[in-house]
Amino acid sequence: xDMTQFAERVRLxxxxxxxxxxxxxxxxxxxxxxxxxxxxxxxxxxxxTMVKIAKAFGLSLVGLLEDQLERSxxxxxxxxxxxTRDQHVALTxxxxxxxxxxxxx
Length: 105
Hints:
Layout: H1 3-16, H2 21-28, H3 32-39, H4 47-56, H5 61-65, H6 69-80, H7 84-104
Helix pairs in contact: 2-3, 2-4
């Protein structure tokens, strides 16, 4: 992934989560200027900076860099919006669906 792709990924994830650059910067412990320069592909972030951004999104670094974020990111956002109790219910339900799928095949 080149810097332009990384910039697009950060901008896309931030907008999907309805975060401002200021909010993402605060969550990642970075300056707003750093986030702005990353999103414009004007700054080559260090590994540490990329890890901070990934954690702010609730992702691993690999998850941030992977191209298959579409569906898993949507699910993660939905689940994170639930109460702890409802998160456990959702995970139990998903586990039951996986068992059913295995039995059906």
